[in-house]
């Protein structure tokens, strides 16, 4: 029995995997080993969450951001980005598209702001989406760190999932990739608050950051468990030339970056089993079929971009973002074909909560059955 068999057997028997086990999976660079790893992750996915893919229509509604993360293309200090913010009507039009196309739920994402105008705007958008869909469209927010009062207000207005990536669970690495006034402790506190309020809680990291080791990534997977995440959204770190971190990035070529991203998805699936894991656009930026590969490595959620095409070039967190010139209908047709090609189905019209979140239903988390 080789090392991978030993790890799979341990995982099948319900024993908790150790840090060295996760590191062994993450370091599997030879092709046949990787294929076995992805096959195992797919088996765990099939057993615990099924072979259905859930769509979250992604609306990137503004690139105005108060923060200055050293890796991000829309950071405050990047003067070469044309700033925009959608009108509420434009958000509702995109939501209508999602509803009519039975996407089940959507994600509102933007740069981070905490001023009263922004808080009211998001609140009105959430209420508007609930109204136009008769409460049927699920809403995930991904708009950064906010006060407890704000998180609560948006939850009460109808948002039920919140995505806040920890970016890296290593506090020293976090400090290296953010300016001094960005706080790791505050980010964790926000995640706890989001959870306490009753949101289905999503977090994740960037994979392949300069100075990040495989041990760090293994610890990230432990962090997901410790924070009791319902969903994971993570993807390869991709350089954006107009950011300070660009000068430090070295080491990984695109293929190695993609493979590591896929191994991280597989190891997370094998370890956490019943959560939702997104196959993120950053995977597709590295390889045309990156998102399908993500599904085959254990992911079960895809976030098709439904933002109006003309805004997409201004929302570039990293370089090489795909689908800049495809409108939402083209994205849908292309994705549907790609998903059916790998033998999976799409959970049209469903919220697609993770079994992990559903297990807590009635206790603290708002799921489709409790809406
Ligand atoms: N402002 C919000 C949401 C938008 S940014 C927030 O930061 O939470 C969404 C995610 O984009 C971030 O969490 C980060 O993980 C990712 N991101 C930013 N720059 C990136 C880059 N260069 N490569 C890969 N992912 C990046
Ligand atoms: Fe702003 Fe989010 Fe980019 Fe940081 S990662 S600069 S908070 S948009």
Describe the protein in words.
By secondary structure, the chain is an alpha/beta fold. The chain has one domain (40-361): Aldolase class I (TIM Barrel). The protein is 43% helix and 12% strand. The protein has 14 helices and 10 strands. Strands 1, 2, 3, 4, 5, 6, 7, 8, 9 and 10 form a 10-stranded parallel β-sheet that branches. Helix 2 crosses helix 9, helix 4 packs parallel to helix 5 (116-132) and helix 9 packs parallel to helix 10 (254-272). The longest helix is centred in the C-terminal third of the chain and has 19 residues, at 254-272. S-adenosyl-L-homocysteine is lined by residues 71-72, 109, 111-112, 142-144, 164-165, 167, 206, 235, 237-238, 240, 282, 317-318.
């Amino acid at each position: 029995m080789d090392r991978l068999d030993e790890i799979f057997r341990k995982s099948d028997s319900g024993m908790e995997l150790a840090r060295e086990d996760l590191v062994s999976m993450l370091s599997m660079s030879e092709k046949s080993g990787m294929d076995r790893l992805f096959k195992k992750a797919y088996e765990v996915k099939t057993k615990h969450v099924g072979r259905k893919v859930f769509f979250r229509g992604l609306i990137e509604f503004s690139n105005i951001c108060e923060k200055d993360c050293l890796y991000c293309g829309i950071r405050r200090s990047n003067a070469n980005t044309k700033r925009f913010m959608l009108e509420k009507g434009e958000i509702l039009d995109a939501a209508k598209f999602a509803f009519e196309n039975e996407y089940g739920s959507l994600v509102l994402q933007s740069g981070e702001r905490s001023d009263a105008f922004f808080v009211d705007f998001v609140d009105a958008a959430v209420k508007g989406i609930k109204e136009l869909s008769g409460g049927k469209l699920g809403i995930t927010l991904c708009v950064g760190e906010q006060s407890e009062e704000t998180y609560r207000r948006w939850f009460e207005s109808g948002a039920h999932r919140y995505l806040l990536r920890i970016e890296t669970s290593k506090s020293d690495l976090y400090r290296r990739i953010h300016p001094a006034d960005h706080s790791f402790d505050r980010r964790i506190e926000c995640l706890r608050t989001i959870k306490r309020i009753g949101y289905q809680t999503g977090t994740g990291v960037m994979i392949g950051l300069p100075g990040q080791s495989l041990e760090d990534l293994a610890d990230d997977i432990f962090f997901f468990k410790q924070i009791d995440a319902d969903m994971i959204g993570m993807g390869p770190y991709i350089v954006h030339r107009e950011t300070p971190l660009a000068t430090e990035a070295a080491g990984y070529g695109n293929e190695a970056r993609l493979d590591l991203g896929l191994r991280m998805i597989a190891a997370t699936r094998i370890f956490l089993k019943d959560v939702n894991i997104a196959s993120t656009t950053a995977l597709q930026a590295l390889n045309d079929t990156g998102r399908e590969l993500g599904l085959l490595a254990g992911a079960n959620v895809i976030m098709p971009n439904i933002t109006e095409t003309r805004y997409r070039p201004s929302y570039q967190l990293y370089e090489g973002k795909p689908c800049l010139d495809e409108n939402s209908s083209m994205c849908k047709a292309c994705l549907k074909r790609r998903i059916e090609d790998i033998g999976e189905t799409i959970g049209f019209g469903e919220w697609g909560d993770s079994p992990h979140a559903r297990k807590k239903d009635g206790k603290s988390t708002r799921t489709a059955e409790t809406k």
